[in-house]
Design a protein that fits this description.
single chain; Rossmann fold; Nucleotidyltransferase, domain 5; 2 domains; 6-stranded mixed sheet; 21 strands; globular
Length: about 475
């Protein structure tokens, strides 16, 4: 059987450094078109080829490749892998999950027998798919789109194959690639603040860079020899400043791909510093393992002033209740608060059979379920205030310190794009993401305080009955 030859040359100095290091976790950050995915595919092949042979002369490895959704896994990640390796090194099967079984002889007489498994994991619960896996290495493709729980769980699953009795893995660990996150993302904190031991970050030059007030093609960009002429220059046209920063310039920034839930929001109009008045305050809460709270006050003119936020990650109801109580009784201890939360919080925990509301009420936090969880009513309650002026000022003002809420309203809280031919289409319900929790906390505050009372009420025609959501809105306290 003729030998199969595979040649690969790193498309830049950053990629070469990425291949030369053995850190437990290596994260590659860069712009579009910089060959990040290609480099990760080549790195997997390099590692499975360098795995020490066992007593039978077989180099055994098992890798897992993860992307956030199956459509993207198939059309991008697997497409790149198959373009590079195809069926030349073994059989690729479209099962559940898809996998490539590699079986190929090397020049030294040894044989590579490796398995590369492809999975999609789009939420924190999906990390449970890793619990029973024993793998050599893990590639997290487009890391910033994945929950941190997937990375956390992955650190304990690598290095488990091959078994020690067969010699164990020569190297094991995690490789990742990603476009740039924003400064509130957990990936930013890992790269710029936490600096975990045994981790290495590789940041490629941007495809463009700012020269005065203009974006120009960066001559130091990597992988240019493999890109079409004017690849980066052509992408500058019609793009927002934030999109260019994230996807072309490889700078930290905020960009989203979807339809904003609140297109009515304008940061330049709705964000303004203000002073609070003594008296009442209100807050809204979205529960779950990434709970968030938003704090507001209704002024004498009827405007809502949103003055602070509390956004957490990987936190249960008890710890969040502690943080919420400290926040309310600390800087805002002179306000008399009433809170509203996601009605789903009335479901009992499987751990101690208490609901999140009972946990908070046990700590003297005044909170009750919002009267509805209807997404349309919640959205319109906030949208109605965003589009209304009171004495020339928006009826909903947000303090500049509410950074996460501002990003959510600016488009992070969005309807995800649906892959379809023809016109652009989006899902009917907002996407659950790191931005949705704080935005929904605002919605619960407003609908609980009565801002949703005009959303669904219409004159009753003879024989007509109200929808369930209308009945729910009629129970609001005014």
């Amino acid at each position: 059987m003729p030998a199969i030859e595979y040649r690969y040359r790193p498309a830049g100095a950053t990629l070469a450094r990425f291949h030369c290091q053995d850190d437990f976790v290596r994260i590659l950050l860069g712009p579009l078109g910089s060959a990040k995915s290609t480099a990760c595919c080549a790195e997997i092949w390099r590692r499975i080829s360098q795995q020490a042979a066992d007593g039978d002369g077989v180099r055994r490895s098992r890798w897992l490749v993860v992307r956030n959704t199956y459509p993207e896994l198939i059309t991008t990640t697997i497409a790149t892998w198959r373009e590079m390796f195809g069926g030349r090194f073994g059989s690729f099967t479209w099962g559940h999950p898809p996998r490539h079984r590699i079986d190929v002889a090397l020049d030294d007489g040894s044989r590579v027998r490796a398995e590369v498994i492809f999975m999609a994991m789009d939420n924190a619960d999906a990390a449970k798919k890793l619990l029973s896996l024993e793998i050599t290495g893990l590639w997290l493709n487009e890391l910033k789109e994945l929950p941190k729980a997937v990375l956390d769980m992955g650190t304990g699953r690598v290095g488990r194959y091959p078994a020690r009795r067969l010699g164990g893995p020569s190297w094991f660990g995690i490789i990742c690639d990603s476009n740039m996150p924003d400064e509130d993302h957990w990936l930013y904190r890992l790269a710029e603040t936490d600096h975990p031991d045994g981790w290495a970050f590789f940041r490629q030059p941007g495809g463009v860079r700012k020269c005065g007030d203009r974006w120009e093609v960066n001559q130091e960009a990597e992988n240019k020899r493999n890109l079409p002429p004017d690849y980066y220059r052509n992408q500058l046209a019609g793009k927002s400043e934030d999109w260019i920063k994230v996807y072309l310039a490889a700078e930290y920034g905020f960009a989203f791909d979807g339809r904003a839930v609140f297109p009515e929001f304008m940061d330049s109009l709705h964000v303004k510093a203000f002073d609070l008045s003594p008296g009442d305050g209100a807050f809204g809460v979205d529960f779950g393992l990434t709970p968030a709270a938003v704090f507001g006050q209704k002024d004498k003119l009827g405007r809502w002033l949103i003055f602070d936020e509390l956004v957490t990650e990987d936190m249960g109801a008890v710890r969040f209740a502690e943080r919420l109580g400290e926040h309310m009784r600390g800087p805002y201890g002179d306000l008399a608060f009433q809170g509203w939360g996601d009605p789903a919080g009335e479901q009992r925990s499987q751990v101690d059979e208490r609901t999140p509301f009972e946990v908070m009420q046990a700590r003297d936090i005044p909170i009750r379920p919002a009267p509805t969880n209807d997404a349309v009513i919640r959205r319109e309650a906030a949208a109605g205030l965003l589009t209304r002026l009171v004495d020339g000022v928006p009826a909903l003002l947000i303090h500049p310190r509410c950074r996460r809420l501002r990003k959510a309203l600016a488009g992070g809280y969005c309807y995800r794009r649906v892959q379809a031919t023809g016109e652009e289409r989006y899902r009917d319900v907002p996407d659950k993401s790191m931005h949705s929790h704080v935005a929904e906390a605002l919605e619960y505050l407003l609908v609980g305080s009565g801002a949703g009372r005009t959303v669904v009420r219409k004159p009753r025609r003879e024989g007509q009955t109200f929808a369930k959501t209308a009945d729910m809105s009629s129970s609001l306290d005014f």
